[in-house]
Amino acid sequence: MSDNQLENYLDRCRARVEAALNEYLPLESIQPTRLHAAMRYAALGNGKRVRPVLVYAAGEALSASEDALDAPACAVELIHTYSLVHDDLPAMDNDDLRRGRKTCHREFDEATAILAGDALQSLAFKILAWDKTMPANAETRISMIESLAMATGSRGMAGGQALDLAATGREINLTELENMHIHKTGALIRASVQLGTLQAADPDPEHVRGLDHYAKCIGLAFQVVDDILDIEGDPESLGKTKGKDMANNKPTYPSLLGLEGSHRMAKRLQQEALDSLCPLDAKADPLRWLAGYIVDRSR
Ligand code: GRG
């Protein structure tokens, strides 16, 4: 793979999701204008769009059409954006900076940020239920809504966040740390791949299993690298406050495995992710490039 292939792929997917988000998000001129402005502020702009890119790459690996993937790509990004808006609130991480600019509650106010997160979450499910660019029947739509709801709720991301809050300032072991991240970060990454595969017509079950294992591996690798970047990353390219984990006395992979051990773990997970794609042909190459991107990224 050349760097250009990956960059072109990322640019293409990011442009698609940005355009589709722009369409789905209510205009600022529509009442309630401040809430709509806050939703657009949080969702449009400088995110890496890893989760939507995974929706496109997983769907395309199984020959789903790109046009059918815009809706699920936006749904996962809206859920992710909601989680960032709420995570940044004073009651949680109390952060001032996100994606290189002021967090939603600093730009607007706390109440508006809470409502914006709530409304972004609802919009994600509405898109899956209703969007007509996605040629899915009612059964597939219900499967997609179930997958995203499981990944988002108390048995997924929100549950992982609760485990994270409970672990702050306390010593936990590697198994507990892994369990927390499988839920907090991994569940939505896994759902992104699932939503992409659900747009494929009659996929080979072995391929679907391989993709699911791929998603579990890169979901965990994503978090290991996130922890490493909190120590080694450049604050300007990160676009968020660096060193917060240590300042908040949060358990992380580097705190349990050291930096070198964490880098090794990320590489091992990358290899396991690639191995699980063995049954898939060249249409899965973007997923192979993305495994490298997730482990080697600098932001
Ligand atoms: C508030 C219900 C609720 C959940 C919050 C995802 C999450 C749970 C909190 C985000 C805090 C955080 C730093 C998590 C670690 C990994 C992670 C999700 C990083 C942010 O995702 P990126 O790097 O962000 O994909 P961009 O801005 O590129 O979209």
Q: What's the short version?
A:
The protein has 299 residues and is mostly helical.
Keywords:
2 strands, 14 helices, binds geranylgeranyl diphosphate, single chain, two-stranded antiparallel sheet, mainly alpha, 299 residues, globular, 1% strand
Overview of this protein structure:
With 299 residues, the chain is mainly α. Helices cover 70% and strands 1% of the residues. The chain contains 14 helices and two strands. A two-stranded antiparallel ribbon has the order 1-2. Strand 1 (97-98) and strand 2 form a beta hairpin. Helix 3 runs antiparallel to helix 14 and helix 4 packs antiparallel against helix 6 (110-130). The longest helix has 28 residues, at 205-232. It is globular and about 50 Å long. The model has no long low-confidence stretch (mean pLDDT 94). The structure holds geranylgeranyl diphosphate. The site of geranylgeranyl diphosphate has 16 residues, from helix 4, helix 8, helix 9 and helix 10.
